[in-house]
Structure formats: structure tokens, C-alpha cells
Design goal:
Length: 323
């Protein structure tokens, strides 16, 4: 009885082992693969301590580089400089009228204009998502303090500019006289037709260059509110060197747009010339703000700013400290 049963038991054991082996194969087949992080962790565990440290450093740096936002380079928006004056979030007409009336006060009106304009530049610099504040008589002293350095400098330039223009005229007349004397008289008309345009172009180029050099000086004076900061010539040279193409175009744009604005002001019973000048001036200062943002984006040195007065801290709640 035992000998016939052994083969059957052996067959059962063989069958059972085959079943167990099939279950093992099926479990191996259905086993989920390791996730990439587990595989990475297992691979890292097999590495040396130095390799694990290098991998950890690379893993910490890679997400920061991937998630870093791409900074958009500022660009000059010429027409926006005029459009922002009459922004729907501002009382543009009231600002222009109040500033126009203030110009009847000798020198004080000029200080108010400079102070208000450059306070708007600082406001846009600190909180670019908001419009610049409207004209507020409660900030009268702040406007005067900020507007004193640039307006005093412009006042001095206006006082000496007639002398400078007179000297340029003398030099031009001397050059023309020398040219006429040395060359034959038969060519006098030809000489005048050549020399005169060259002199005019030269004088216009000097005026354009002077304006380009003065803009960064006045901008620094208006933002820092200090006369001494205005004569940081190294900063002004660096400003011109970094943004000179845009600075040239902005200056030419100001010259071109002033002519039609002045003509419209004269057509408005002459008194419109003052509001037209205020509009042109505010647009020019806003273009200075855009140039300043472009200068900073190209690695320029920021102007040191004073902290805002505590009683007007609500104007700077969204301030971006860029000092």
C-alpha cells in the first residue's frame, strides 16, 4: 500500500511546487515597478558620501533655477508718458490746472512743479503698480523741499544761458569773418551757404548734448532731494553710457512734441500755453522715470532715497525698497 501511494504523494508535491512557483512568478509579474524617486534614492544610497553631497547640492539648486521668473527688460513707451497724465485713476485735469495757476508765483511755482513731478517719479519707482499721487496742497512743503535743488540749478542755467548764447554767436561770426577774409570774394556766397548750416547744426548738437547731460543730473537731484547729489558726475556719465541711445531718442521726442503742444496752447487764447507746457513737462519727467528704470535694469547704481514722511506713509504702503 505504501509503494503505490508514494508516487501519488510525490505527484501532489510536484503539483503543489509548480503551483507555488506559478504564484511566485505571477507576484513577480504583478509587482509594481519602483518609482523614479525610489530608484534615485536607492542609487544615491549606493554612492559615496561625496557623490551624495554633490547630488544633494545639485538638487537644491536646480529647482531655484527652474522656477526663477524671467525679468522683462523695460522699454521706453513714448506716448504712455502723455497718456498717464490723464489716467482714469488720477485727476489729471485738476493737476494740470493747479500747477498752471501756481506758475504765477515767481520761483515758487517752478519749485512746486519740479517737486510734484519728481515725487511722482519716486512713487512710480517704489510702487510701479499704482498711479502717481495727485497734487495735494497738504504736501506743499514736501514739494518745495524736493523741487528746490533742480529748480535752483535750472534758474542758474537760465541766468547764464544768454551769456553762453552770446559767446557762441561771437565765435560763429568770427569763424565766418575769417573764412570770408582768407578765401576769394567770388566764393563768398558759396562759403556762407556751407558754413552757416554747419554752424547751426553744431549749435543744435551742443544744445542736444547739454540736455542729455543735464537730464540725469536733475533726475538725481529730484530723487535724492540733495543739491550735492546732483553733482555726482561719475553717476551721470554712467547713466549716459548705459542708456544713451534711448536718452537721445527721448530728448528728440521731447523737442518734436513740444512744438505742436505750444502751437495748440497759443491757439487757445494764448493762456493755453501754460497748461501745454505743464503737460509737456510732466511727460518729459515720466520719460526720465522710464530711462531710470532702464538704467537700473542694465546694472546701474540706484539713487539713495530719503524715507517718506510718517504722516504720508499711506502713499508708500506698497513700497518696493530699491535703495
Amino acid at each position: 500500500m505504501s509503494s503505490p501511494d508514494r508516487p501519488e504523494s510525490d505527484r501532489r508535491q510536484v503539483d503543489r511546487s509548480e503551483v507555488d512557483q506559478s504564484e511566485v512568478d505571477q507576484s513577480e509579474t504583478n509587482r509594481p515597478e519602483l518609482d523614479p524617486p525610489d530608484c534615485d534614492a536607492q542609487a544615491v544610497a549606493e554612492q559615496s558620501p561625496e557623490a551624495r553631497q554633490d547630488a544633494a547640492t545639485e538638487h537644491e539648486q536646480t529647482p531655484a533655477l527652474r522656477e526663477a521668473p524671467s525679468a522683462e527688460t523695460p522699454r521706453i513707451r513714448y506716448l504712455a508718458a502723455y497718456a498717464q497724465i490723464f489716467n482714469e485713476q488720477q485727476q489729471g485735469v485738476q493737476n494740470v490746472l493747479l500747477l498752471s495757476v501756481s506758475q504765477f508765483i515767481p520761483f515758487i511755482g517752478l519749485m512746486l512743479l519740479w517737486g510734484f513731478a519728481y515725487e511722482g517719479v519716486e512713487a512710480l519707482h517704489r510702487r510701479p503698480r499704482w498711479p502717481q499721487p495727485d497734487f495735494d496742497f497738504s504736501r506743499f512743503s514736501e514739494y518745495l523741499t524736493r523741487g528746490l535743488p533742480p529748480s535752483l540749478f535750472v534758474f542758474i542755467l537760465q541766468a547764464i544761458s544768454p551769456f553762453l548764447i552770446f559767446m557762441l554767436e561771437i565765435v560763429a561770426l568770427v569763424l565766418i569773418a575769417v573764412a570770408v577774409t582768407l578765401l576769394p570774394t567770388t566764393y563768398g556766397g558759396l562759403i556762407m551757404s556751407i558754413v552757416a548750416p554747419i554752424l547751426l547744426i553744431g549749435i543744435a548738437s551742443l544744445a542736444l548734448l547739454a540736455t542729455m547731460l543735464l537730464r540725469p543730473m536733475l533726475l538725481r537731484a529730484g530723487l535724492s532731494q540733495e543739491i550735492g547729489q546732483m553733482f555726482r558726475l561719475r553717476w551721470s556719465r554712467d547713466f549716459v553710457a548705459r542708456v544713451w541711445p534711448e536718452l537721445l531718442l527721448v530728448t528728440l521726442f521731447g523737442y518734436v512734441t513740444y512744438v505742436p503742444l505750444a502751437f495748440l496752447g497759443l491757439c487757445a487764447v494764448v493762456v493755453g500755453i501754460l497748461p501745454a507746457y505743464i503737460i509737456w513737462f510732466l511727460a518729459a519727467v515720466h520719460l526720465d522715470y522710464q530711462l531710470y528704470q532702464l538704467y537700473l535694469a542694465r546694472g546701474g547704481e540706484p539713487v539713495p532715497l530719503r524715507p517718506p514722511p510718517p504722516r504720508f506713509a499711506h502713499l508708500w504702503n506698497d513700497a518696493l525698497d530699491r535703495r
